[in-house]
Each structure stands twice: as C-alpha cells, then as structure tokens.
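hiii so my PI (J.) wants the whole complex modelled not just the main chain, which honestly fair. so below is everything: two entries, each one labled with what it is. i double checked the lines twice but i was tired so who knows lol
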Amino acid sequence: MSRFLRKHAWVSGLAALLVVLLIVTKLIQPSFGASGLESIARAALPFAFATAGMAVVVIVGGIDLSVASMMAVCAVTAAVLMERMAGIPALMIVLSLGLAMGLINGALIVLTRVPDIVVTLAMLFVWEGAALLILESPGGATADWLEHAIRGSFVFDGLPKALLVIALGIAIIWLPIRRTKLGLSIYATGSDERAAFRSGVAVGRTKIAAYAVCGLFCAMGGLSLAALTGIGEPVPGPYLMASVAAVVLGGVVLGGGKGGLLGPIIAVFILRIIRTILTLLAVDPNVTTIIEGTIMVAVVMLGTAASLRGARR
Amino acid sequence: MKTLLSGVAAFAVAASLTPAAFAGGHKSYTIGVSNTVQGNGWREQMICAMRAQALVEGDVNNIIVAHRNTDSAGQLEDINNLIEAGVDAIVLNPSNPDALNSALEQAMAQDIVVVAVDAGVTAEGAYILSNNQEEYAYLGAKWLFEQLGGKGDVVYMRGIAGVSADTDRDNGFKRALEEFPDIKVVHEVFTGWQQDQGKQQMFDFLATGIPFDGVWTSGIDNVIVDVFTESGAPLVPIVGADNAGFVQYLTEVDGLKGAAVTNPGSVGGAGIALAVDILNGEAPDSKTVLVDPVLWENTTDDGVATISAAQNPNLDPEWPVSVTVPGWTDYTMEQIIACEGPGEG
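here's the output for the full assembly
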C-alpha cells in the first residue's frame, strides 16, 4: 500500500484534495448531494475529453493548440448530421472525423518539421473556420439518446452517468494503447526523442498516432458538447487553456514522457468543483478567475516541493 | 400508516422552515445571475443594473453573479451551480435560445423562477423580458419623418441581416413608413453594427451626390455625424441610439438635429424587478414582457434638458447613457455606478 502511494504520490495527493473539496462543498451547502455530483460530472465532460487528448500529446513531447477548435468542428458536425440521419452512424462519422483531424495535425508536424506549436496554432484557425463553414450560427439537433446518455445516475444515485461516460470513453481508448508497443513508444519518444529513435522506435509514426488519439478524444469532447446543449456551436469554447491547466495540475510534465491520464482527469474535477464552491460562496466573478489561477499555481508548487523532498530522502 | 404520518410530519417541519411560512413578514430571496459576455459595456451595465436593483428590492438579501466569457456548456454549468446554491430565481442573458433548456427545466421543476433578459429562451415556463426593438425603430423613424414635415428622402442604415433585433427593428421602421406615404428610402444598407463599415458606407453614399434629407441608423450613429463634419456636407437630421458618443454630439455639434432612442442594458435591472414580482405572486399575464424605449431629441428645450440630465461624467463611456428603465427600476444613478448588490462588497 505504501509503495503504491509513493509510486502514485501525485495522483493520490490530487484524489485526497478532491475529497477534501467535496467535503468543503458539503459543509458550505448541506443540501449538496447526488444532483450536485451529477451536475459537476456533466460540466466536467467536455473538459475531461479535451484534457485527455491534450495529455496524450504532451506525454509524446508535443502540444496541440487546436483542441477546442477540433471539438467545435465535431460538435457542429454531430448536430448537423443527427438532424438528418440516425444517431449511431453519425456518431461513427464524427469519431472518424476527429481521428482524421488529429492525423492531419500530426502528419503536418512530422512531415513538414515545422514546430508543433506553430502547426497546431495555424490549425486552430483552420478548424475554427471549418466549423463556421459547416454551421454558420448555432443550430442543428442531437439524438435524444445521446442527451439521455449523460443525464441522471447509473444504477444508484451518486454515480452520475456522465462520470461513467468519461471513465469508459477514456479507458476504452487509452488502456489498450498504454499496454502495447505504441504506449511504450509514446512515453519513450516523450522522454528522449533521440534515444527512442536509436532504440528503434518509429518516432514519426508514434507522434502522428498520439495526435490522432488526441483528435479522437476531441471528437468525444465535441459529442459531449452537442449532448449537453442539444445543438452545435461553431465558436470554440474555453477548452484549450483549461486543458493545458488540467494537464499540468494533473502531474504530466510539459516536456513529455512523464505522467498519465488519471491525474489530469482528477484535476479537471478539482477545477470544476472549485468553480462550484466559488459560486456557492457568491464570490465576485471578477475575482473568481484570479482565485482559480492562484490555487492552480499553489497546488503545482506544493506538489513539486513535496516530490523534490521525497526524491532527496 | 406510520410512515405516512412521519412523512406528513417531516413535510410540516420542512414547510415551517421555508421562507413562505413567514408570509406577511420580511421575505429573503436569493437571486442568481448568469451571463456569458464579460468586458462589453452594454453587458457590464446590465450586470450593475441587476446588482443595484437587487439592492433596492427589500425582499432580496443575496445575489450570486456568474459572469464570465464562456460557451453554452459553460452557462449550463453556471446555471446548475446556481441551482445547487439554492437560489429562488435565476435571471440570465442566454447565450442561445435552445441550448440551456435542460438546466432551465430542472430549475423550474424545483420552483425556481427563470427570467431571460435581452434575448429569449425556448424552455416552457420561462419569462422573457427584453427591449422592444420594433418600438425602438418606430419611435426614431416617426420622429425623423415628422422632422422632415412628412416628406423627403431618407437613408436607412440597418444592423445585421437575419439577427432578430434587426428584423424586429425593420418591422418598426416599415410601420412608421406606412404612416408617412411621402417619405422615401433612397438608400438601404447593413452596417453589420460596425463603426468603420457604417462610416465608409456613408462616405460612399455622399460621394454619389444623390440628395437626401435625413438618416436613420440602427445604433452606428456618432461616426455618421463624423462623416458630415469631416466632409463638410450640410448636416441633416440623424437618429441613433443612446450611446455616450452620440448623445454627447447631440449637445455639442452645432447645427445637428438628432434623436437618441434608448436601448438600455439596465433592462437587466428590470429582469430582477420582474423576478421579485413573480416570487411575490404578482406574475404578469404574459410570459413575454417588452420594455418600451424612450426618445431623447435636441430640438426642444425639454429634450435638451433630458439629455443633459442623463449625462454624468462618472458614467463609463462604454455604457449606454440611459441607466434606468422607467416603470421598472428603482435604483439611483449613484447606486448603478457603485455596482454593488446585497450581500456583496
């Protein structure tokens, strides 16, 4: 048990922080219960998928500034398609679209050798324009079952369906990858690209695959936006900065090679619940963002200090 | 039977703890506010009007403001958080008429009063309060046509094609036009509500040399006055909105005859007043409430006095000059400038 805790110190710390925050919420608002958990889980949905995508490319040693734009493309595509055809094929098309956009991002970075930050910044605008071409103003419709899939609780109160969707969506894609050669290659490339290349890792292909996985997660994020609102919105939401923040807070090293997906996902929930607490306390909205930022820096600083002390011992 | 009895007892205890049990005494409502555009003068005035009105409403003891730049999913999150905070009413400026229904329906299922200001929502049972855009255009157009003696050619500068406010305003303009058969529209353009675009369009039209007697604008107004003063063309009567820049011109530019029609962001304060009315059992007959604009012109002494009274150096230059909605809001100009609500500051 203690070995497990030491190995996963950051994630355990985050989980403990989340529990503390949940207790604080309950103390502030005694009526906070299943419905509160459910609305936090629903709010976390798009952030969780954006963060998962971002985490994968950060682990491979890159960054993707176009996540929010890709989500917008997928959300409007889902809303337009589901107005005209059955839900399941539309869902499949949207997931493939996300995968394709990620592949394009990755291929451009690897083939042109232009830095990832430049390529994905450019693609941010390209995908944003594409979303507006697909749907000029908010509209479309989504399948009823998609909206129901994220609303309410599963089996018993207190287990929100949205939480289950996050867990399943990420586990189905990430766990098999992590356990295979591709997963090892992603971590190896992120740690030291040259060493990985010399050890026989197909660095280019690994990077492209990581960006494709990111695109796939963004498609899930876009689908969850459509499911939440029942429409598609072409203008990207605030998911880029939020996903970078959750990735950093979640213990993924920005240089690549270190960290997992569980930490960032817990971080997403921490950031959402902080907003809930600040709303419950009726904190001035102009101060809210300052507090959110300060808490983030403080947690990362404390975490780094703690792990440094642990390493010295 | 025993569970039924204990259920009834629990209900009675719960009922005695709710504010309704103190009917007749001092009520204490908490009102939640949700808005998704931060840093825009009109919206900031709306938020301050909400706080000021909540402060002067005796029945409101707390206001929770969720005010940030976000998308519909973010507004859903904010509304759900307000529900968790146990508010009695939610007053929101919706980011989209259809996207928020899940949260709004949940709120109404918990007997939370929902009032949408500025734009509508499709959730059944929600109240909608907005400026009457048709009346806005009708008032200004009628004043302009009367200035011209019921006869002449006018330039018609609209907003954005397809936006509901523009469509409503067009209906009002056409209604005024029908009452004055000798008035002709010689030029109709969409300014896109962009200052530079509207200015260029006016320059272009002046260059054609086609004579005209008056200009109606959908709020791109002070730059039109600039076109006349910069090019030296003789001024014609101009109708605009109550933007600070234009209202200032009405008092300062020599020879300018004009009128400003109010489109107050303080409609947010009216939304708070409406929510409190509904909570106190004084719901209006219709779910949709329109606030009528007023017209300020500088051709009569009364009009000039109204305009100078409305100007206040402490007022944010980005705000619309009309800070109150007659018949709805009760706060003073100092209170809206202070921008503090109950339980805040």
